[in-house]
Amino acid sequence: MKLLRRALLVKWHYIEHELIDFAPVTFLTGKNAAGKSTILDALQLVLLGDTTGHFFNKAANDSSRRTLKGYLRGEVAEDEGVGVINLRDGQFSSYIVLEFADERGHKPFCMGVVFDCSPDGSIEWRFFSLAEGVPDFHFIRDGVPLDIKGLRTWGQTRKNRFEMFESNKRYQEVFLARMGNLNQKFLRLFRKAVPFSPIMDIAGFISEFVCDVKVHLDIDDMRENIRHYRRMEEELHVVESRVEALSEMGGTYDAMESASGKVKLYEYLLDRAELTAKEQSVAAARTQAEGLEAETKRIEGQISAHTDTQNQVRAERDALVEERANSDAYQRQQMLEQNKRLMESEFSHVRRDGERHDRMLADNGERWRAVARSLGDTDIWWTDLGTEDGTEPAAAGGTGDAAAGGTGPVAGGRTDAGLAKADTPERKLAQSAPLYNDAIRAIWEGLSWWPRPAGWQSHRLLDEELAVSTDLDALRGSADSLKQASDLLREGHVIMRDVIGSWEEESKSLERAISELKRGIKQYDPKVLTLKQALEQGLSAKVNIFAELLDIRDPVWQKAIEGYLHTQRFYLLVPPEAFSQALRIYDDTKQSQRLFDVGLVDIAKIMDEKPRAMIGSLAEEVITDNPYARAYADYLLGHVMKCDHVDELRNHRTSITRDGMLYQNYVARQINPTRYATLYIGKMAIAHQLAQKTLRLDRVATLLHGFRPRLAQVAEWAAQPYPTSSELTAAEEFLQVLTGLPKLRGDYKAILDDMGSLDFTRLDEIKKEIARCDAVLADVAHLIRELTSKQGALKGQRDRLVEQDIPLLEVEVRDKKHFISSRYHPLEAADMSARYEQELQRLGTPETVTANFGRQLSTERNRVTESWDKLVRQRETYNRTFGAGFDIQRRDNDAYRAELTALEQSGLTDYAAQIKDAKERAQIQFQEDFINKLRSNIDTVEQQIKALNFALREVSFGGRERYQFKVSPKAQYLPFYTMIMDDMLLEGRSLFSDAFMDKHGAVIDELFRQIVDVDERDPAVQAELEKNLQTFTDYRTYLDFDLVVKDEEGRESRLSRVIAKKSGGETQTPFYIAVLASFAQTYRINQPGFNNTLRLMMFDEAYSKMDHQRIRDSIKLVRDMGLQVILSAPTEKIADIVPLVDKTIVVQRIKSQTRVAPFEPDPVGVN
């Protein structure tokens, strides 16, 4: 038995230097974060030989971030600004050394580790062993722990009692050997036990840690033997498959050869049938050529007879023609006919000119009459130009003044007396109305003298003379009137087009003005705004329009004020000090910008006069916050007195009524309403202007809607052509020609009379005879043409046969004979020739032979092709499957036939006997090396579980619960378990006996399939095989493990099923039982002669969920099993645990240092 006695910790986290003593049952306690887990982590590091830190502080915090570096440096905090804060920096060395006592030899020995920590943060360590106790100097010289080099030097003085290890793995091997040749699973078990957390996979834990049996079997030799005989079976199967495949290929080849023989015979029959048909064609062609030659000669005789008739009739006709030509009546008739045709031609020219003259008169007359009728509807156009209040168009011009958009006095000129009338688009268009009236008068005047068409189109030479006007002066006068009308209409079109263009521009301007008014921008003359902008750019002072600064107190005086001020409303005001500079800017820009009639007020001079508004003057109705505007308003309006009635006007030098009757300089006059038609002063100005602009826009839109289609109509009128000078010249020439028409008509009548007096009796007879001859000649000529055409066609057919077709057919016969003689062997041809003669006699014609054997040939050829394709596929499959290198396209089958013969003579029977012998040997090995060993492992595990249960039979926890381990077959693999554990094998029966195979044959085959596979070349198959091997050679595959809990009433429950439903104490207790059992197996406690092993266990946060009775029973079980345990728990468990343990150690944290001190309680007996 090997027990932990002491532990030396130097520079480990908060521990600077501590030597801690341990007993068989040691209780490590202290408050949370005092350092209990720190000590346990140090012990684990040496016990496990693991410096990765994966196991650090797992009980206190499962998500712990403790690291080896943090333990060594003494990491205490982490600050965002500073970083990690450590207790130790610079170069130092740390030690963890565990002293063990071997109770057999009573000789202490140590296992430990030394760490060298450098200022750069790097860490170097070495594990070591010492065959004696912890030295008195604790590896510290002059207050400084020895570094690795110093420890090695000291160790050399201990001769063979000290060893330092260069790797963790080597240290673990030595540690396990020193602790009694422990299994590697000790490392996993110890790491898992320390956190004292419940086991959720109870079966896995028991099979891994409680059972001490070799997990996997070595069956490589057995697998190789099985593979050997299976490879032999496969090789035999391959040979048999090759023989079968080659035999099938032989049958396919023979079928192809049979079909090929038939193909050759049928091809010969068809070739001979084709030759016979060609020979028959040559004979038929020669017979046809002879018939065509005879027919050609017969037709030639017919043509000769018709030619003689043709010559006789032609001679007769020539005599009649000569008689007619020598006749006086005929000669006179020909002369009169010629003159008659000349006169008719001359009259046709006259009539054509007359028709042209008629079209000119009709077109111009109809065209201009239509224009005149349409022009009659223009009277209503001009009424549409009246204003909306019904005034005449001239009054429509007063649409505003200069500031309203350029149609007022600033834009169109002004006088001191008021506004001059301006030409508006409506007025301009209305003034064009007389043009249309004049055009109508001109058209009717022209048409009144315009001649009507005479009707030359249907006129004939002998008809009565037509009534044709020959007054050229009247025609020219009418043409001039129509031209005048056209000019007037073009002028009207230009005016209307320009007016519509003006309205369109005005419409766009009004739309812009309305948009600006809706945004609160009043509309002023562009010249006013241009000067204002120039002054604003050149001055740093504010520039204002006078009207912008004013408002009207009483709206009834609005018109009087705006009418009186007139253009002065738009004068510009600048501060007094800026006037001189403003005047210079005005003077510099007036020419380039054409800035005339825009006022610039010298407000300084006005203010110097200190104008005062008289009581009752118009100035009282003007409101303004601007001092300059106030002064200027008083200057202009302060002496203009308001009068309610015209009778009061003479009471003042200057006075005015509400409706604008002005009395000034002893003159009374009414202010033109156009002056205040558009308001610019005060709040009402924008609304008033917007209403005016909107009204005007609607008016312009109405006018455009009405006059745009009228413009198109006027354009059409203006485009109408009038009689041109060329047309008038043509008319004059035509009328001159008409003067000779009476003579032409008289001469024509005389010719007709002469022709009527001639005697045509004999000529008529001659004419009839000539017509008869012509008819006979035509008929004969038609017959000759038909016969000649037919003769030529027949001769062509005969020549084509003799010169082309027959020679070609004879060549084809020779070629076919040569083809047959060269294609077929004479001996074969002799046999097949007899067959052909037989078939020709039976079927009658070569065509029937071709039709009959052509279908059969196609069928046999398909059979040859199908057989060949099948043979190639069979050869390709054979080569690919069996690795053969034969030519699959070779037409003979010699290579494959030889392969078949060689295989059939290879001795397959002897090979089958060898396979049977190898199979029997492999079966015996499978039973002995696999099934029997697997059964032995299962038996061993069941015995181990049985032994553990025997040890636990009297142990109860809390006097209520008893625990037993349970092992049973796993349901998933029950057929395998049943086969492995079958007692038939114990009776000496073979695994592969008939009785056993009848019972378990399917299971054995499945097991073979899972762990043995010959085709290991496939990586996927090999990976699956290795996975199955790990599964089926592991005894745990076939078993289920569990921990059965029996309460005081005898009720049993399996921990694997209720673990999630149990309370804390109920889950810790089974864990404790399972861990103790696992350590008992690992330490071989129950194996005398092999149990001189380590007995240590450690539990962090131990018994945290157990009550006092469970704790008491647990510790008693440790003592009974001969184990050593270190328990770690917080101070809350002192009362429960201290009376039960051999030693209690208190861990305290004082500032940045952990202290360890023994705790001596009053003695308490432990049963």
TrEMBL record:
Signal peptide (residue range): none
Region annotation (Disordered) ranges: 387-407
A Pfam family recorded for this sequence: SbcC_Walker_B
Coiled coil, from the record: 275-302, 924-951
InterPro entries (alphabetical): P-loop_NTPase
Bias (Gly residues) ranges: 397-407
Keywords of the record: Coiled coil
Source superkingdom: Bacteria
SUPFAM superfamilies cross-referenced by the UniProt entry: P-loop containing nucleoside triphosphate hydrolases
A biological process from GO: double-strand break repair
Protein name: AAA family ATPase
Organism: Alicyclobacillus mengziensis
